[in-house]
Specification:
single chain, about 200 residues, alpha/beta, Maf protein, binds inosine 5'-triphosphate
Length: about 200
């Protein structure tokens, strides 16, 4: 079936397409619905923001909609950038500037204290039913410089423990095995088979 993901982030969109394909689903995102305005992310948690995005778009389209709210939490920065990951460096969404800000803030943090993790909350909004969420994480460390060119966002400065490489050095299919997004989606697989059967 066709699954709608309430995201305007092209990097997320590509990953969802890749992950849903083997499950037999096609993905549409807000990049396919340019008339739908940005939803204000006024929540205080990944879950809260994912619910806001999923419900807003589900109401507009009267369809089942999944939203992804995600980000990077760095221990030495008390969990920042966290829910502010997309705009950490300022008003504009700018991956390079965001990474530069993190590298700068992490400059004096020793190797032993560079632990971080990606979070992904997925919200499923179903017309007439209660919205629910699942959550996935991916553990790693903040590198001292950018490495690799795959992926998006903070991938070049994130050393992925599970793979022993920078996230941006992983081929897309490798990232889709171990990412926070993949770990969250795995928890939805059975539900999706039921929700979108036929
Ligand atoms: P939508 O709300 O339209 O989905 P967004 O980019 O604004 O797009 P978020 O508010 O969830 O989405 O912010 C997520 C940010 O966290 C994203 O912009 C990246 O900077 C970072 N991020 C999330 N997942 C990531 C990943 O797999 N790799 C690298 N960075 C990631």
């Amino acid at each position: 079936a066709e699954i709608i993901i309430a995201t305007k982030n092209a990097g997320k969109a590509k990953e969802f397409e890749r992950m849903f394909k083997p499950l037999g689903h096609k993905v549409k995102t807000l990049l396919d619905f340019p008339e739908i305005a940005d939803v204000e992310e006024t929540g205080t948690t990944f879950e809260g923001n994912a619910i806001l995005k999923a419900e807003a778009v589900s109401q507009l389209l009267d369809r089942i909609v999944i939203a992804d709210d995600s980000g990077l939490a760095i221990d030495a920065l008390e969990g920042r950038p966290g829910i502010y990951s997309a705009r950490y460096s300022g008003a504009e969404k700018n991956d390079e500037a965001n990474m530069d800000k993190v590298l700068n803030e992490m400059q004096d943090v020793p190797d032993a204290k560079r632990q971080a993790r990606f979070h992904c909350a997925l919200a499923v909004a179903i017309p007439g039913e209660q919205t629910y969420t699942v959550h996935g994480i991916c553990e790693g460390e903040i590198l001292r410089e950018k490495q690799g060119s795959y992926g998006f966002g903070y991938d070049p400065i994130f050393f992925c423990t599970a793979k022993g490489k920078a996230m941006a050095e992983l081929e897309p299919e490798e990232k889709s095995q171990i990412s926070h997004r993949a770990n969250a989606l795995r928890k939805l697989e059975e539900d999706l088979a039921t929700l979108f059967s036929g």
